Inverse folding.
């Protein structure tokens, strides 16, 4: 079973920041938080991952709470092309399996 | 970033036939490859984990004799759906890990299988 809880859907206005929350209260000390997204009928796309520090790359920022029980993925300026299902997954670093939950369906609207 | 390809992108076959799907990591050597399937409006379900040169590890409930996985090299894994039936119709997706030390997985574009 997935170890994360995400809202099933969210809307965001184009150009605004999209903040996608994820709860992972049972995360263990050496498990990472990974974020992927899946655009309709395509394979998932890796976005970002982190252990305990906040992370930023060209796609997004990941904010992990100090107790590591939750995190937020931030898309700073959402575009229509960011419409997708976003998955938050906790997994071990080396050889860890990814168990997908239901994710959050993000709809970016004009 | 890392590129993973799948072939074919879609296939239609008759019930009772076997279908092979290839997954290739194009620009890196994948230490581990994973196979998933996804039914309409559902999430991805992990089927098996494949390491080069060793037998695949199947998830509970996945029939290893029906879904044959071969990982002959660090860049190629194949999934063969044997004696396919209509209920095997699904979107099959592979992923590969090992591009970086953090082992994030990179996914192929998926293969749509329709069994008539």
């Amino acid at each position: 079973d997935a170890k994360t809880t995400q809202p099933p859907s969210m809307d965001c206005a184009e150009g605004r920041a999209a903040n996608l929350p994820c709860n992972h209260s049972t995360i263990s000390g050496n498990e990472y938080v990974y974020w992927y997204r899946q655009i309709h009928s395509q394979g998932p796309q890796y976005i970002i991952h982190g252990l305990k520090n906040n992370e930023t790359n060209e796609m997004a920022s990941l904010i992990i709470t100090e107790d590591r029980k939750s995190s937020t993925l931030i898309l700073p300026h959402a575009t229509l092309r960011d419409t997708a299902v976003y998955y938050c997954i906790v997994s071990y670093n080396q050889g860890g399996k990814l168990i997908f939950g239901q994710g959050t369906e993000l709809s970016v609207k004009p | 970033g890392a590129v993973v390809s799948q072939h074919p992108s879609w296939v239609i076959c008759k019930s009772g036939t076997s279908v092979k799907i290839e997954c290739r990591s194009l620009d890196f050597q994948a230490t581990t490859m994973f196979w998933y399937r996804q039914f309409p409006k559902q999430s991805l379900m992990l089927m098996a984990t494949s390491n080069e040169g060793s037998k695949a590890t199947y998830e509970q409930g996945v029939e290893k004799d029906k879904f044959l996985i071969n990982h002959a090299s660090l860049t190629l894994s194949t999934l063969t759906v044997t004696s396919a039936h209509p209920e095997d119709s699904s979107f099959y997706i592979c992923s590969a890990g090992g591009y970086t030390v953090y082992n994030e997985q990179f996914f192929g574009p998926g293969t749509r299988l329709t069994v008539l």
Notes: The first strand of chain B starts at residue 4 and ends at 7. Chain B has no helices and eleven strands.
